[in-house]
């Protein structure tokens, strides 16, 4: 492995410590190398805190080494003032002579300006190291800025014979959870929730299942809850409307007297492209990633519109014979693993 690739790979590893906490900032990783030895590491803090480069530089025990060191970073250092000062300015201030960057930042506030600022200050800048790996690592951030929408993950569980649930008459007569997957798979879903910025379901899923859509079987932040409720049919006592977690409700009802406190309502036009409006609204709310957990109709709507990036499909050992058919999807198989009897397949769109 080439020396630059070695340290950019370490940057990616370090960056993953920020998974699920940096939104809407990217989870960047950075290391400082002096005489072929790492003397500082850092990753992006929780939103509003220092960026990866700042944390890496601050972790260096002897700052005098910086004037002869190389800073490695997965994404181009920022060049603008936001919640924190520009990272490029800090690099210049410490007279770090060499900066090695995984990929350029597509954010219109940066777009090469960080690189330009470093070069103008006399820094030697190398760009495009492990570019494929860095793009995969920053896939949420890149999708948001390049496609102007969140990175969309579809998730569902289906029986061995392809159903998401048994027949409704059975669900009504025997009111109990119909678990398709095992406890390990269900715990993994909560881990995923902690890693994404938002989670979404349709009206029927809320009315039938009354989900909490939070993180319970894992440590981490609960994502913003998103639901489409055209006629505001969801009962006010539902978990999703309890105000405990930030919640967005998309509706056509404009009468605010029907709105509940602590819930953010957004009016959209259901006679037009609903999926596109949802994506636009989520983009405007700086939501970089969203996991769609149901129901079948909502999932299929995203599939039919081509608005998905990754699908995570569990297949359990249960068989229903009849019931609610799972969505139909076609994509590139990225991974297939066994989880104590369950099968998890991960697809990518294109």
TrEMBL record:
Pathway: Cofactor biosynthesis; riboflavin biosynthesis; 5-amino-6-(D-ribitylamino)uracil from GTP: step 3/4; Cofactor biosynthesis; riboflavin biosynthesis; 5-amino-6-(D-ribitylamino)uracil from GTP: step 2/4
SUPFAM superfamilies: Cytidine deaminase-like, Dihydrofolate reductase-like
Keywords: Hydrolase, Metal-binding, Multifunctional enzyme, NADP, Oxidoreductase, Riboflavin biosynthesis, Zinc
Cofactor(s) required for function per UniProt: Zn(2+)
Binding of substrate, residues: 193, 213, 216, 293
InterPro entries linked to this entry: APOBEC/CMP_deaminase_Zn-bd (IPR016192), CMP_dCMP_dom (IPR002125), Cytidine_deaminase-like (IPR016193), DHFR-like_dom_sf (IPR024072), Eubact_RibD (IPR004794), RibDG_C (IPR002734), Riboflavin_Biosynth_HTPR (IPR050765)
Chain positions recorded as NADP(+) binding sites: 157, 179, 205, 209, 295-301
Any one GO molecular function term: 5-amino-6-(5-phosphoribosylamino)uracil reductase activity
Domain of life from the UniProt record: Bacteria
EC annotation from Swiss-Prot or TrEMBL: 3.5.4.26, 1.1.1.193
Family statement: In the N-terminal section; belongs to the cytidine and deoxycytidylate deaminase family. In the C-terminal section; belongs to the HTP reductase family.
Function, as annotated: Converts 2,5-diamino-6-(ribosylamino)-4(3h)-pyrimidinone 5'-phosphate into 5-amino-6-(ribosylamino)-2,4(1h,3h)-pyrimidinedione 5'-phosphate.
PANTHER family: 2,5-DIAMINO-6-RIBOSYLAMINO-4(3H)-PYRIMIDINONE 5'-PHOSPHATE REDUCTASE, DIHYDROFOLATE REDUCTASE FAMILY PROTEIN (AFU_ORTHOLOGUE AFUA_8G06820)
Protein name: Riboflavin biosynthesis protein RibD
Gene name for this UniProt entry: ribD
